[in-house]
Structures are given as C-alpha cells and as structure tokens.
Amino acid sequence: MRPRLSRRQLLMLSATVAGGTGMAALGVAPAFAADYPEFPYPDTDYQEPTRGQFHFSSQGGWMNDINAPLYYDGTYHLFYQHNPHGLTWDTMHWGHATSPDLVHWTQQPIALEPGIHPGDLWSGAGLVDFDNHTGLQTSNTPPIVVFSGTNGVRLFYSNDRAKTFQTYDNGNPIATPAGTSRDPKVFWHTGTNEFKLVIWTDAGGNGVDIFSSPNLLDWTFKSRFAADWLFECPDLFPLPYNDGYKWVLNDASGDYVVGTFDGTSFNPETTVARMVEGRGAFDGTFYAGLTFAHPPGDRIIQMLWMPGNRGDIWTGCATFPVELALRETSDGPRVTRNPIAAIEGLRFDTHRYGPAVVDPGQAEALLRDVVTQECEIIAEFDADSSTATRFGFRLDVNEDGSGGHEVLYDKTAQTLYGAALPTSEGKVRMRLLVDRNHLEIFGNDGTMSYIDSPSFSTSDQTYRLRLYADGGTVSVASIAVHDIARTWS
Fold this sequence. Notes:
Blueprint: H1 7-17, E1 61-72, E2 75-83, E3 93-99, E4 106-112, E5 126-128, E6 144-148, E7 154-158, E8 166-167, E9 181-189, E10 194-201, E11 207-213, E12 220-226, E13 235-241, E14 244-250, E15 255-261, E16 266-268, E17 273-274, E18 287-291, E19 301-310, E20 314-318, E21 322-329, E22 332-339, E23 347-353, E24 356-358, H2 360-366, E25 374-382, E26 390-397, E27 403-410, E28 415-416, E29 419-420, E30 427-435, E31 438-443, E32 448-452, E33 464-470, E34 474-484
Parallel strand pairs: 1-20
Antiparallel strand pairs: 1-2, 2-3, 3-4, 5-6, 6-7, 7-8, 9-10, 10-11, 11-12, 13-14, 14-15, 15-16, 15-17, 18-19, 19-20, 19-21, 21-22, 23-34, 24-34, 25-30, 25-34, 26-27, 26-33, 27-28, 28-29, 30-31, 31-32
C-alpha cells in the first residue's frame, strides 16, 4: 500500500498553508433558503492571463473534483467541488455549469449549498431517472438525481432540469458502507436491470463497496473489491472490446484495471495500469475525474480536475473532454484517451508542414512564423529513419528563439515527455493541446496521455513554437498547428 495522506488531511493542510481563509474568516454568513441558489460571482471576461480559453474553469472561487457529469435533452451538465467564497479549499458546495457541446460552457448558480443541503457535500455522481424509478418526479421532465456525502450516501434531486435541488428523506443516508467512505458513483446496469453504486471505503484497507438498487432509494450490499492502489473517487464503466464489452475500474489518481462485472462483483483481468500520466494527486497536475452519464452515441467521455491552474479570482479547472476506448496490447486491453471530435469545430487557422527530413538548424526555422497562445498540434514522425536522439517541440519560446518548454520524444528511452511510449510501426504520433498554462499531451492515438500545468510566461513575446531535433535529423511525416478559438462567450 502506498503511504498517502487522506484527502481530508490534504484539504485541511491546504487550507492551513493558505492562511486558514475559512468562511468565517472571510465574513461569509451561513446559507439560508431565501438565498439559494444565487451567488454573485465576480465579473470576468474570462481573459485573465492564466485562464484557459478552451478549458473550463469556474467563474470565480475554488474548484476541485469533477462531480455528476451528465447529459440530458441537449444539455451537458458539469458539477464540481466548489468553494465560491475563496481561492482555497473550504466548506464544499457543488458548482454547476452547462454546455450544448462540451466545449462552450455557461456558469450556473450553485447546485448544492451548505445550510440548504445536509451532510458533507463532497464528491459524488448523478444520473437522470428517465423512468421515474424513484417516484420523485413532479414535473413533465424526469428527475436529475445526484449522490454525495461522506460516511453515508445522501440523495438530492431536481425536477426543474438542475436549476434547484431538493433533499431526499431529510438527508438521511440511503446507504452506509463500513469504515470511512466517500465519492459514490451510481449507474444503470442493463445486465441485471438494476442501479449500481460503487463507493470508496477504507474498511480493511483501500477498496470499493458495490451496492444494487431497483429504485435508487433502497440499496443492498453486494460485494467488496479491495486493492491497495484504489484510493478515492472510483469510476466503473464498460467499454466496447472485440464483440462485447470489458469493464474499467479506476481511481482518482488514474490507476485502473480492466475486467468483468456481472452486476454483483468486479473481477480484474489485467494488472494495474496508468490511464493518465502526470502527478495524480490533490496537489498534482490532475485528479478525480469521472465519466459522463447518458452521453449521446453511447460514448464514454471523461473530464478530470487540473489543480495547478489559478488566477486572481479562481483556482483549478477541468481537462478538455476526452473519449475513452480499449485497445489490445501485449499486456492485454488498455484504455486510450483522445480529445472529443468537437475540438475540430474550434480550429480557425492552420499551419501545415511536411513531409520533410530536417536537421537541427532547419527544424529550428520550420515553425518560426507560428505565433499562438492557444493551439492544437498534431504531428507524426518516422522515428526509425530519424537520426536525432530526441525530437519534438519547444513551447513558450522567446522571439529570439531562447527559452521554451520542451515536449520531446526520446528514442533511446522510448518516452514522450518522460512517459513510456514505444513506437508504433516505427512511427511516433504526438497531439498537444496548448492553452496558456494548460498542457495536455496524447501519444500514438491516445495510448499515452499526460496532463501538466507549466508556468508559461504571460508575455506576448513568448507565444512561439519551435520544432527541435537533437544530434541529427528528424523525419517529419506531417505537422499541423491549429489555432483554437476561445470558447467563452
């Protein structure tokens, strides 16, 4: 078992280090029903120097874990752990934003608020109760039902398309796992025609408890899957594989296994792998992602929290949405991650290069005229015919060619940005999302993905790219640099 602080300990430490700016210290009064759910977020044009222009961030305040991402009737809903009263973790609310396409987001009023909704409003999941299994529907639309709470799961529901949420049964827990528990994930399982609840607990060590319910209200314990690596924010979902499906179970830090799930127990068939490279921690480069409920096309779409991005009125953001799939490898089925196709609609100017074989000097000159702060870079290199030991891109380069942040492939180590990436038929494919201080890297069609938050300069003198080759030539099959439009209205 890897020694880790609990999230509660980390959160408390974060608040202490930040000077203990709790709600009382900020002079914030307790919430009252008459105030719910409005909150006067600070005004912004979303163009602060470090705010991502095509990555979601809260209009104001602190953001952490992704909560209850779901789709209903033309709208994607993104909820998230939220302190609207300060820039550090404090008394948790559920923030809320909506989008028609997963890229253009609109801030909504707070969804769950202390003083209105009981319990610790920590991480959780949600879904649409299309067939009114709960019997809670009171309007002509099915209820949106979300789950939260520590050491006991609480249910909240909305009959007005997530504009307001009511508390079920005065906040009494609908399921209480043994030990310390948090982060419920709930979904419909077609094989048994029942709802399933997967929740992290430390009863006897790290692991998840699995419950079943016919109506989302009455839950029966089915089994426990214990694993030292499995810490916080579990997600369990199926992915197409060959002529059927495999199930993927992952935790907050991106560790996962692939296996089978019969509605009662999960049985792994692979060793533990990394779905996302980077530092998967509360104070790292990513943490606590979830997949969307009910997305059109039966896609499995994931967003994660990026802790390292912040500005004067906001802290934390979300990754760009990705679609997950399974690919066969020598180690069995492995998860791939790739940006959703909607990013293509954000491209407005493209610079193309190749094919070409270039030496270090020619590589330095190839992208000299490209000036961009928000872009998508898609490149393919023939590693086998390249004599350079390292090649790739330098980002955030000064006008005179100095400085820069390197995203390089190391032929000897077979790594991209330090993460393992064997060549594919002698080729290396790189896809980079560069959005001010937000950097997402995808290698060989999503076989590897890396999330980082470099501290790029905010000076317009560094909005330059360079192709880099070290110690020889690099064989460029193609490079496309797409400028990406800002998604804030």
